[in-house]
Specification:
2 domains; PH-domain like; globular; eight-stranded antiparallel β-sheet; two-stranded antiparallel sheet; 223 residues
Amino acid sequence: MDSFYSLMGGVAKLSGAMSRSSINLVPENGILMGLCLLLGFGCLVTYSMLGELWMLLLGFFALLSLILLFISSLLNHTIFQAKPVQASTPSADPNFDGRVLFSGKLRLQQKTVRRFLGVPSQIALLEDGDFGFVSLIDASSTFNGFVVNELRGPWHSVPVPGSLKLQDGMFYYGFKGQPAIRLSYAEKLDRSQKRATAIVAFNSEAARESARRALTEKINSPS
């Protein structure tokens, strides 16, 4: 099962990177899926006519690639494997400074919402006294070298105190997994009242244990 998640992580990294670029307003990962579909069915039709085994294998490979790319897109290229921590609780990292890799939706100036994948973020105390996740990101749009939509500054996500639910696991963005925590919480600035889902990843299990304690103490304890 770990091998499958590792494979999906590699697919997600490729597809996620391609989704941020487009050709004639069509995302590149969408173009790749279309090519896989055409190649797959084309090879199967050719195999039915000529009986060439290599055409059959190539067709199945193309269709399998299409399925993996489609799954990655459905999951927003966020591959998480739920995996409980072993019975022996790992020691916390005394040098943990609140830095995490955040995957989920962030807000800029309370209005603009974007989904980000594996961006550096900080568990920080905000100006209004709430704890949340803050990332300094430049998501501005450009055209012919000119900025047409400036989206630069601190992006944040602010959980409602006491609403946070945590699940340990591994986050795959690439073939190698990282210790991670999947979060489910009520977003303070989301008027729809829908629970937000995010994943925070770490370089070590010790850092994850430190983050779990920080999240529980700073965010999950209602004031």
